[in-house]
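Exercise: predict the fold of this chain.
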Amino acid sequence: MDIRPILSTLRRHKTASALIVLEIALSCAIICNAVFLISQRLERMDRPTGMADSELVRINVAGIGKSDDATALAKQDIAALRAIPGVKAAAALNQVPFDHSSWNSSVSLQPKQDVPNLDASTYLGADLVDALGLRVVQGRDFNDDEYVDWEAFNKPGSKLSIPAAIVTREVAQKLFPGQSAVGKLIYSWNADDVPHRVVGVVDRLIRPNDNGGPAEAGYSVILPLRDTTMGRFVLRTDPARRAEVQKAAVAALEKNSNRRIILDQDTFDQVKADYYQQDRNMAWLLMAVIIALLVVTALGIVGLASFWVQQRTKQIGVRRALGATRGQILRYFQTENFLLATLGIVLGMIGAYGINQLLMGTYELPRLPALYLPIGALALWLLGQLSVLGP
């Protein structure tokens, strides 16, 4: 029975009604996409690395001048690091995830394949499974006779090849769906098209950076090259001893050579935190935008409701004199707000879809899931009903 007088009243206040509808529509469109973007950022920061994150220490060094025997120094460094009390494992490698360095290679199933099957991050080093805390789910770790010396492999005219490889579960499923990858041949990294035999599959090893996008974050391959001389080290220890081990490791590396500079020394948790700082900042910024929009929208509804209550004081008094209860009067204004909010939400959902299409085309974001639309609608309906109660 309230609908007809409500519609009649709204027709007499078209400008105010239209402003509230547009405000709700804009809030709905922005909030739905903002909540979706926040969830994307949180999901990205929560990606598993496959490593023992809380046990790792990362140290990067750079040499001054050219070392006469870099391989011997690399052996000495690893021996010194492994001898530190509390160190479970240590390794020299070409890259650490989220460390602003990324080695990538195409991976194929046939030699001289024109279009590779996938692009993967390539980790080079010895004992990386143990040092990074990876979990082998099929096959095994490298045998000692499968390792190739880094210096000998890179000598001009070298005929050495890399016989084995360990791949992640994602790579195995992509290359050999429904089959075991162990024992299969793949072609990667070296230009001579010599195959690597897959000897093991690890559960996961995240790529250092965002090459390939979210779907390919776990595309990684480990190749058995030892005594790498790229100045990157990773140590695994008990979480409570990371600070102690980090300090001792820096001292050991400086003792081994007075012609080097310690570039970075952090726990891997700190490396991750630094890498995802921009994502956290974006999530907080979007949260602030959402709160600001909700506050502005609520204030707009409160202001309009207060104005209309004052304009209809006589109408309310007549209705009460004729027997209308306080609840019926309140329900009238709530119904009125519900109608305006519903129209604004419908327009807002259309706007949310349009904004998402723009973001998809400009920033390659995924499609907005339909679930976020009813969530935004319920939030604005609830906000509108609560905002009307005060006036």
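Check your answer against the key: The chain has twelve helices and twelve strands.
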